Amino acid sequence: MTDTPLNRAVFDQVMVPNYNPAACVPVRGEGSRVWDQEGREYIDFAGGIAVNVLGHNHPKLVGALTEQASKIWHLSNVYTNEPVLELGLKLTNLTFADRVFFCNSGAEANEAAFKLARKYAFDTVDEEKNEVISFQQSFHGRTLFTVSVGGQKKYREGFAPVPEGISHVPFNDIEALKEAISDKTCAVVMEPVQGEGGVIPADPAFVKAVRELCDQHNALLIFDEVQTGVGRTGSLYAYMDMGVTPDILTTAKSLGGGFPIGAMLTRKEIAGSLGIGTHGTTYGGNPLASAVANAVLDTVATPEVMAGVKSKESLFVQRLEDINKRFNVFRDIRSAGLLIGAELEEPWRGKGGAIIAKAREFGVMLLIAGPNVLRMTPSLVITEEEINLGMDRLEQTLEALISEAE
After folding, report:
1. Rg of the chain in Å (alpha carbons)
2. Are the C-beta atoms of residues 73 and 79 closer than 8 Å to each other?
3. Which residues neighbour 276 within 8 Å (Cβ) at sequence distance 6 or greater?
4. Same domain as 125, residue 48
5. Would the annotation count 224 as a binding residue?
6. pLDDT at residue 404 in the model
7. What is the CATH number for 343?
8. Which of 129, 223, 224, 362 is catalytic?
9. Of 62, 149, 196, 288, which residue is most buried, by most CB within 10 angstroms?
10. Which residues of the chain have pLDDT under 50?
11. Whole domain around residue 155: which residue ranges?
């Protein structure tokens, strides 16, 4: 153990400066409450960016992790293991998929999905069928391939040349997609709800039209459910409420409840294009991560938790609407289960970062999706008491900001 005090200053001393974390250093969590080094309490509406699906220190997840830790941690994919086999069975039984590829993150799951889409087109048509269409303001990860497919140019700047054969069209604009798609398109990639892009839900008619266009052009439809999956929207996966089934689905974040794991799900005939040696990962599907993910699915995939998501969504939205009546701070409030975005109104626009920084002073953890949208992705089992307390603290935050501006 080092004698150096482990505070925020150490980050600037030893870390690559691609992040700018808050001054407080959380050290303990319980449910949807977190305490920092100074003992200050926070209500966690951030959920580790839609990761802590069952909050902090959930007994079933702790139990699964510690039980597996006493057995075997890592084998590599030279061998399989019992927890990953159980997890594969669960995911294929609960979804449209026949086959699963396990990895460590959402970016890795998307990387695998995009590679599979091109390989499948190569195997079944020819090498000219390689174009990928994504949507403006989408987000699919930070690897070079996934950041190129993502529809936010700011994340690609400085990393050229980026992979070719990728185009972006406006979200929820089917006419734009009709003009862009062709028989050279191997895949269309979309989020059911654009999370990083501002919590923008896909229009149901748009989703169905995308599916039809993919079928017409023999292109795969990939759903990036890294942020919307594992109960976040009130269904286990968002596609289940949309009347559309994708060909490939990616999932991560909530799947491990805080333990790193990701997965790509697809049908048997498509999966065959990733034969032996075509893709791989050292840690993907390791026993520790798989054991925790099994416990997550066993807990989340129940009628009680799914119904709770919808009732808690209503409470969040009602409290935000009440705050808006008082302060006129939100232009729009959008939600898909417990993925919630509150778009800022003038003169608050551009001040999302300042609001979440001030909110920490009042003991509530929030996120932003760009400078103009406050984003909330709390635990699915957050209590009504915690929701109300966090909203009270958000209200106090806005009062303080208004007072400081006068």
Report:
1. 21
2. no
3. none
4. no
5. yes
6. 93
7. 3.90.1150.10
8. 224
9. 149
10. none
11. 72-300
Whether 280 is covered by a domain: the verdict is yes
Examine the domain organization and report whether 262 and 327 are in the same domain.
no
Is 118 part of any known ligand binding site?
A: no
The secondary structure of residue 230, as a DSSP letter, is T
User: How many domains does one find in the chain?
Assistant: 2
Q: Active-site residue 253, yes or no?
A: yes
Least Cα distance to 379 among 41, 42, 51, 40 occurs for 51
Active-site residue (options: 90, 119, 253, 351): 253
Instruction: Look at phi and psi of residue 382 and say left if phi exceeds 0, alpha if psi is from -120 to 50, else beta.
Output: beta
Show the DSSP H helices in 343-383 as ranges. 352-361
Q: Are residues 282 and 318 both part of a single domain?
A: no
The conformation of residue 239, written as its DSSP 8-state character, comes to G
**316 is annotated as contributing to ligand binding:** no
Q: Which pair of tokens denotes residue 156?
A: 């690609």
CB-based contacts of 125, cutoff 8 Å, min separation 6: 218
Average pLDDT, the chain: 97
The verdict on residue 354 lying in a domain is yes
| Residue 159 is among the residues annotated as catalytic for this protein | no
Instruction: Specify if 65 maps to a domain.
Output: no
142 is in an annotated binding site: yes
Give the domain-ending residue among 280, 300, 320: 300
Q: Within this chain, do residues 193 and 270 fall inside the same structural domain, yes or no?
A: yes
Q: Is 123 known to be catalytic?
A: no
Q: Please give the pLDDT value at position 382.
A: 98
Q: What is the pLDDT of residues 17-59, one digit of tens each?
A: 999 999 999 999 999 999 999 999 999 999 999 999 999 999 9
* pLDDT score for 1: 67
DSSP class per residue in 309-327: HHHHHHHHHHHHHHHHHHH
Q: Give the domain CATH number at 243.
A: 3.40.640.10
Out of 263, 284, 300, pick the residue that ends a domain. 300
Do 245 and 167 share a structural domain? yes
* 171 has binding-site annotation: no
The active-site residue out of 102, 114, 135, 139 is 139
Pull the structure tokens for residue 348.
């608050």
The structure tokens 């399989």 sit at 80
Helices (DSSP H) in 328-383: which residue ranges?
A: 352-361
Alpha carbon of residue 208 to chain centroid: 22
The tokens describing 147, both together, are 């950041």
